[in-house]
């Protein structure tokens, strides 16, 4: 699967270095050409010779040791790679890269790399949770770097928690997936909306819903993985932006409408995963409403239906809506497809356990024009998003859009 793929593995110092040796072995067995750079700390755990034997390539660790005088090693390695993986990545190397520091062979090469960079952290659970580390990870996410999340389990320091380097088999599987997925959306622009909206009542209160943003963020990540220029218009949620995605935060349905309008004209796909409020308070109180004796009532007015608006305006764009239903899922989804002039409606029955709002998994049926209908089993939202998007893009390519 990985024949002729050039993978540059940057190894930083932690006990998980031994797993990096297994990773080189797996990648090489799959046919990849692997080159390894080590930090000084990594060399305290495993000798470069081990990586040299596993990769059948020279191992690099000294910025000033130029093995080939016709090139500058760290620039040459950066240019050579189709994919750069940092595994294990310590808090130190993450912090340096997030702050643009290049003071050794690994970090100078990372700064010079234009190929996608994937970081697989491994550290103590409290280090991984430290606000500074979290800030640096968020910064790197925003810079378009993809993370392979550490798994949970026994850590070398004696703690049990999140911080174990992902298994080499799993990383190899992800690398395989990366290279086998064609960049189906290269040159295309995808706009995704995600999360809830907030409709203010007064300075301290608002109307909202249970959307966590997970499904929409997964759709945006899937679009970016397929090579799309991806714009994520997000209501208030606390998720990190997926790698390679431009995120625009909005608050209300009206804000979301304006942001979508700005991005719509030159977009190719618009995916409306957001749970947009259908109503907002008719009056926005400038000061906190005081409680009074007896009941109170709130007068509501309709918000703009963004999907409906896009359906009336659309030209070449493929318009994909979601539908959160509690009953008669198929009937309501099909009616939304028609009424909103969407190309697809992805319906979830939000009464099903582990599906819909807030969960990490979802179970959906997609409906399209011409009675197209396909159901998916319960899947993690990220995997489901990949399958949904691939299905839509391949169908649309057949329609020659
Ligand atoms: O965010 P999570 O916790 O992961 O949950 C995911 C989800 C359940 C929110 C998601 O899968 C989902 O179903 N999103 C759509 C929810 C919804 O608002 O459905 P709806 O049936 O009310 O609206 C239908 C479509 O019209 C949606 O694409 C919606 O974005 C759009 N709409 C709705 C109202 C409005 N004023 N403007 C809109 O554009």
Low-confidence stretches: none
Using the CA coordinates, give the radius of gyration. 24 Å
Overall average pLDDT: 94
Give a quick account of the main beta sheet: strands, pairing sense, barrel closure. Answer: 8 strands, mixed
- Total helices: the number is 14
Distance between the termini: 30 Å
Spatially, the strands of the biggest sheet line up as 13-12-9-14-17-18-20-21
CATH architecture of the largest domain: 3-Layer(aba) Sandwich
* Structural class by helix and strand composition: alpha/beta
The quaternary organization reads as: single chain
CATH homology superfamily name of the largest domain: CoaB-like
Helix proportion of residues, in percent?
25-40%
Looking at the structure, the CATH topology of the largest domain is Rossmann fold
**Which ligands accompany this protein?**
ligand PMT
Question: How many domain modules?
Answer: 2
Shape verdict: globular
Which CATH class of the largest domain applies here?
Answer: Alpha Beta
What proportion of the residues form beta strands (DSSP E)? 15-25%
The total count of strands amounts to 22
Region (Phosphopantothenate--cysteine ligase): 190-401
Keywords: Decarboxylase, Flavoprotein, FMN, Ligase, Lyase, Magnesium, Metal-binding, Multifunctional enzyme
Binding site for CTP: 278, 288, 322, 336, 340
Organism: Planococcus halotolerans
Features:
401 residues, alpha/beta, Rossmann fold, 8-stranded mixed sheet, 6-stranded parallel sheet, 14 helices, 22 strands, binds ligand PMT, Flavoprotein
Task: Explain how this protein is built.
The protein has 401 residues and is α/β, with parallel strands linked by helices. The chain has 2 domains: 6-182, Rossmann fold (3-Layer(aba) Sandwich); 186-398, 3-Layer(aba) Sandwich (Rossmann fold). The chain has 14 helices and 22 strands. It has helices at 17-29, 42-45, 48-55, 73-80, 91-98, 105-112, 125-129, 131-142, 168-180, 214-225, 253-264, 306-313, 329-339, 381-398; strands spanning 6-11, 33-38, 59-60, 83-89, 117-121, 146-147, 151-154, 160-164, 189-194, 199-202, 205-207, 229-234, 245-249, 269-272, 279-281, 300-302, 318-325, 344-349, 361-362, 364-368, 372-375, 379-380. The strands form 6 sheets. Strands 13-12-9-14-17-18-20-21 form an 8-stranded mixed beta sheet, with helices on both faces. A 6-stranded parallel beta sheet has the order 3-2-1-4-5-6, sandwiched between helices. Strands 7-8 form a two-stranded antiparallel ribbon. The radius of gyration is 24 Å and the shape is globular. Ligand PMT binds at residues 195, 211-216, 253, 272-276, 278, 303, 305-307, 321-324, 336, 348, 350, 356-358. Ligand PMT is lined by residues 195, 211-216, 253, 272-276, 278, 303, 305-307, 321-324, 336, 348, 350, 356-358.
């Amino acid at each position: 699967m990985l024949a002729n793929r050039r993978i540059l593995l940057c190894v930083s110092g932690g006990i998980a270095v031994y797993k990096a040796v297994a990773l080189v072995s797996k990648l090489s067995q799959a046919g990849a050409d692997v080159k390894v750079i080590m930090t000084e700390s990594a060399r305290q755990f495993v000798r470069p010779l081990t990586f040299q034997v596993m990769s059948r390539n020279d191992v690099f660790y000294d910025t000033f040791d130029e093995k080939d005088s016709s090139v500058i090693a760290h620039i040459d390695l950066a240019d050579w790679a189709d994919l750069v993986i940092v595994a294990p990545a310590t808090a130190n190397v993450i912090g340096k890269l997030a702050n643009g520091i290049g003071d050794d062979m690994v970090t100078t090469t990372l700064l010079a790399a234009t190929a996608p960079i994937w970081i697989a952290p491994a550290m103590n659970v409290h280090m991984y949770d430290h606000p500074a580390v979290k800030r640096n990870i968020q910064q790197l996410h925003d810079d378009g770097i993809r993370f392979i999340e550490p798994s949970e389990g026994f850590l070398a320091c004696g703690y049990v928690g999140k911080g174990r380097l992902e298994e080499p088999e799993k990383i190899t599987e992800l690398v395989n997936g990366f290279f086998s997925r064609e960049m189906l959306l290269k040159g295309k622009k995808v706009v995704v909306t995600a999360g809830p909206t907030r409709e203010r009542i007064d300075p301290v209160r608002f109307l909202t819903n249970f959307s966590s943003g997970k499904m929409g963020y997964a759709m945006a990540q899937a679009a970016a993985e397929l090579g799309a220029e991806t714009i994520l218009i997000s209501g208030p949620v606390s998720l990190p932006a997926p790698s390679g995605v431009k995120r625009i935060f909005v608050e209300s349905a009206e804000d979301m409408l304006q942001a979508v309008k700005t991005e719509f004209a030159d977009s190719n796909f618009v995916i409306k995963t957001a749970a947009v409020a259908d109503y907002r308070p008719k009056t926005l109180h400038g000061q906190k409403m005081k409680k009074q004796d007896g009941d109170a009532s709130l007068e509501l007015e309709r918000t703009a239906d963004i999907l409906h608006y896009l359906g009336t305006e659309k030209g070449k764009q493929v318009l994909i809506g979601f539908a959160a239903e509690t009953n008669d899922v198929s009937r309501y989804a099909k009616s939304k497809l028609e009424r909103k002039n969407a190309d697809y409606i992805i319906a979830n029955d939000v009464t099903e356990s582990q599906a819909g709002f807030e969960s990490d998994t979802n179970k959906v049926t997609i409906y399209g024009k011409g009675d197209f209908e396909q159901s998916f089993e319960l899947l993690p939202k990220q995997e489901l998003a990949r399958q949904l998007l691939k299905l839509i893009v391949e169908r649309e390519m057949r329609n020659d859009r």
